[in-house]
Design brief:
By secondary structure, the chain is of the alpha/beta class. It has 27 helices and 20 strands. Helix content is 40%, strand content 15%. It folds into three domains: 184 residues, no CATH class; 152 residues, 3-Layer(aba) Sandwich (Rossmann fold), CATH 3.40.50; 121 residues, CBS-domain (Roll). The N and C termini lie far apart (87 Å).
């Protein structure tokens, strides 16, 4: 390698000639401070599911990991602003998609720059990268003095932030290196932070990809299309850039026609009816092609549906929801015609099963299966849920020889279930299918088939599992309820397996559990009014029992005291027997609290006296004692 240094001025001149906006050059080194910040971001999972960022972190900030003996890092910026915009005003995409794919465009320009360098410095070894390797282009842009990190995590310079970065590594020193830029000169400005509709910029200078719109509509492998449909952008996001004051300046030379993408002339209707071949044609020169047609189409359709619902009048919403419920009800109603000896035998097999009921499925069927397992377990039928996908990857050990397997599937032909069936046959397990296709592999191989076929889904486009899921759920409830009947499973049995729930408390909690927490107010019939008042106020229950020989003969409430004051001028001369209510309501200590509550409601009282088998007075419970236990 030649010891001759490369002229920085000439590199920058060549960079301008090939079309780059800015060019800066930094001495190659390990950016250890940037690596520490990056590791902090990874540790806090700000990178969401982009797990490739977790690999080779040591090399990400060391240019020699890409080019051995690297001495200089040339960083260029390429402005992607054009003099025209897409015709579509509904399906917005980030500005960088309006030009040819920058990965290819900038890469080609970097190769041209490298060729110019080689003409004068033929011994130079180099490597180019444009968002295609582990190296951190943004940090090297700061190091080379062509940009600063903004609070929205983006690089900006005197021209704004609508540019992409390219890096050229060379194995020779340059004669002059540029001064690095500080992290930010944004000052107290937080316009970008406040503009983000999903709060992905809550931590300045750090984008939380888990929230970021751009991440979810470009990188996320399993996006929530319904949530994305509520956002402005279909691909990428420019919200935080559009509001940035640094982007208010006009670019003198916007890109010419030759660099613009083919899809710009497409209107809303064109994008909504785009075929897969058209998609490949119009987006072949953009970064959007990486998203694949199916995902692009799904988001377009979700936005169309969202827009349609937003246009629906209130009465239309009610009418449509009613239609969905009616279709699901019809689907469940038709199941009665499918009940046959298969259902009878399935119930009989489960009743005599010495093992457990293993319920399995995949997708929405798996979710319904988990609910069925919960119902089984809470009503006396031991059950375990096993996800069909996990089953074929090691969880088959859950299934023992005495277990019965209930498999839920709409199609009955999923790959996971196809793999599961031979194992169950070899293991000797009884297989009960809850299936929506009687011609499927599952229906043909199962010992007993519970038909839950539906003619169509209640969802738009007959796609989302709605009627089919409801049918599976109904069949599962029919199984569980029939088993409850056959087992003679009582309310008390139910309470035993629900000790912490409201229903458990309703069937378990007794008056005896409550009255002991209260004082025991009591006076004799000849007690004077001062004694009565002190007993009622001191015991804080608003009532006192009038007791003779240990038995309740009357009751005095604070309401009785108020009425006595209204009707008697000399109230203090009265005795308890003069104002008490005779033969008040009492309740046995072993009575359920829920029955005590009903008794209070029936007689419109708030307190009731508790007695034992000998009708001896034990105490008092207040309606609030029952309510605070969660019993209503």
């Amino acid at each position: 390698m030649s010891s001759e240094t490369i002229s920085s001025q000439r590199i920058k001149s060549w960079a301008t000639k090939v079309g780059f906006q800015d060019c800066g050059i930094a001495r190659a080194r390990v950016l250890s401070e940037a690596e520490a910040e990056f590791r902090h971001s990874i540790d806090n999972a700000y990178h969401a599911d982009m797990h490739y960022l977790e690999r080779d972190i040591d090399n990400r900030f060391n240019p020699e990991s890409l080019l051995p003996n690297c001495k200089s890092v040339v960083v260029v910026t390429y402005n992607y602003l054009t003099d025209s915009e897409p015709e579509s005003d509904k399906y917005h995409t980030a500005r960088y998609t309006w030009i040819q794919d920058y990965h290819i465009l900038v890469k080609n320009l970097l190769e041209q720059l490298a060729e110019d360098i080689l003409k004068d410095y033929p011994t130079v070894k180099y490597r180019t990268t444009v968002d295609s390797s582990a190296i951190s282009e943004k940090r090297w842009a700061m190091e080379a003095g062509v940009g600063r990190m903004g609070k929205n995590g983006l690089i900006h310079n005197q021209h704004g932030s609508f540019f992409v970065i390219g890096v050229l590594l060379v194995d020779q020193f340059c004669d002059i290196y540029d001064k690095s830029f500080p992290k930010s000169d944004c000052g107290s400005c937080e316009i970008c932070v406040k503009s983000c509709p999903v709060n992905a910029l809550e931590i300045p200078f750090q984008v939380d990809a888990r929230r970021c719109i751009s991440y979810h509509n470009t990188e996320d492998k399993c996006p929530n299309y319904n949530e994305l449909a509520l956002q402005k952008y279909t691909f990428g996001c420019d919200i935080c850039q559009e509001v940035c004051p640094w982007n208010k300046k006009k670019i003198a030379n916007p890109l010419n026609v030759s660099k613009k993408s083919l899809f710009l002339p497409l209107k809303n209707d064109d994008l909504e009816t785009l075929s897969e071949s058209d998609f490949k044609h119009y987006f072949s020169d953009t970064s959007i092609l990486r998203r694949k047609y199916a995902r692009f189409r799904s988001l377009i359709e979700a936005k169309r549906q969202q827009e349609h619902l937003c246009r629906m009048e209130p009465q239309e919403i009610i009418q449509y929801a009613t239609k969905v419920l009616q279709e699901e009800a019809d689907a469940v109603s038709k199941l009665t015609g499918y009940l046959d000896e298969n259902f009878v035998k399935a119930v009989q097999e489960i009743i005599k099963c010495k093992g457990r009921v293993i319920v399995t499925g995949i997708g929405k069927s798996a979710i319904i299966g988990q609910k069925i397992v919960g119902t089984f377990n809470s009503t006396g039928t031991p059950a375990v849920f096993m996800h069909a996908a996990d089953a074929v990857h090691g969880d088959l050990g859950i299934i023992q020889k005495d277990d019965i397997v209930v498999c839920l599937s709409k199609s009955g032909n999923t790959p996971e279930i196809s793999v599961l069936i031979p194992f169950l046959k070899a293991n000797g397990n009884i297989l009960i299918a809850i299936v929506g296709s009687m011609e499927s592999l599952l229906a043909k191989e199962a010992h007993y088939v519970l038909n839950c076929t539906v003619s169509r889904e209640a969802s738009p486009n007959n796609l989302a599992p709605t009627s089919s899921a409801m049918a599976q759920l109904a069949i599962g409830d029919a199984l569980a309820s029939t088993l409850i009947k056959m087992r003679g499973f009582t309310t008390e049995d139910f309470a035993k397996v629900h000790p912490g729930g409201i229903l458990g408390r309703r069937t378990r909690l007794k008056v005896d559990d409550l009255y002991k927490m209260n004082e025991v107010p009591s006076v004799k019939e000849d007690a004077n009014m001062q004694e009565v008042i002190l007993e009622i106020s001191g015991k804080r229950l608003g009532v006192t029992a009038v007791v003779e020989d240990g038995k309740v003969v009357g009751a005095i409430t604070d309401g009785d005291l108020r009425r006595a004051i209204q009707h008697h001028q000399e109230i203090m001369s009265l005795k308890a027997a003069d104002i008490m209510t005779r033969k008040p309501k009492t309740i046995h200590e072993n009575t359920l609290a829920v029955d005590a509550l009903q008794m209070m409601k029936d007689h419109q009282i708030t307190n009731i006296f508790v007695v034992n088998d000998d009708n001896q007075y034990l105490g008092v419970i207040h309606i609030h004692d029952i309510i605070k236990e969660g019993i209503y």
